[in-house]
Amino acid sequence: MCSEFCDGSSEVELRLNIGGLDIRSSRDISIDTNDTSLAIRVLLPGSPITLIETNPLFDRVKSSETIWYIDDDQLVVNFKKQDPDFKWPDIMESWESLTAGSSQLLQGTPIYLVGDSTEINQKVAQELATGLGYTPLSTKELLELYTKQTVDSWLLAEGSDSVAEAESAVLESISSHARAVVATLGGQHGAAGRADKWQHLYAGLTVWLSKTEELDEDSAPQETYKNIKDGIISYTNADVVVKLPGWDPAYAKNVAQACLSALKQLIQSDKKLPGKKSLYIRLGCRGDWPNIKPPGWDPSSEDNTTLGHSNDA
């Protein structure tokens, strides 16, 4: 089904070619839409033909203001955007549309992947970097390059505290890098697994890739409580959480898409977030996230004066 998509200032328009179908009146067409989904079907005798079905749409629309009409051999559907300033690259949310629309969302803000598995962090980081045109970085690879030894042998020789301290130093050195996707070490031996090592992780948008046994969202709060009870408190500092019911490297791109979708929702809920991350970096990643203190603030001071930036801004 050939289609054309156009994004306007406050609305989006979808055109579908229907010339080859035996459509005699508008009553032969069914359009079912809500704020986040769309289904268009032709009600032909026998069984309906689905022309397009998307869930979710790239962004929210005002479904009650949707209009449609037939223009020669085309079905034209017009949607009012809930956010007129947000430009849509396509009608549906997909890997292609998310990566195409990333520049207006991320504004160069780096992404940090944390979680229990170094392998998962690395695989997903590579997919994200490829799709976004970002630089892929792996703290494991950087550590092994600089020390000429594997992280596993380092752990055996010097222990997890030494590895976490070294990774923290690596994160500090790359904290000013824009347009990078950083895969961190998995597990409690990494900096991300320790609440006191997040100073430079706050420089980017952090995604917790969390392996889960739960299959529904209602169980998420209980699982989060269990994670805290088990001592996995540091990962709860992440900006968003992507749950993985299992892992197969072949699905790394799907996980990367879920990461971008979650980050899109996060930034749309707080459009100042990329700017606040940039300010945090410019002031030296002092650990005062999310309540950024004025220039010259001493982390050891007890001054609680802020610049008016918080997660609720």
TrEMBL record:
Keyword RNA-binding: no
Keyword Kinase found: yes
UniProt keywords, alphabetically: Kinase, Transferase
A Gene Ontology biological process term: response to stress
GO molecular function: shikimate kinase activity
Alphabetized CDD domains for the sequence: p23_like (cd06463)
Domain of life: Eukaryota
EC number: 2.7.1.71
GO cellular component: cytosol
Transmembrane segments: none
One matching Pfam family: SKI
UniProt feature, compositional bias: Polar residues: 302-313
Family from the record: Belongs to the shikimate kinase family.
Protein name: Putative inactive shikimate kinase like 2, chloroplastic
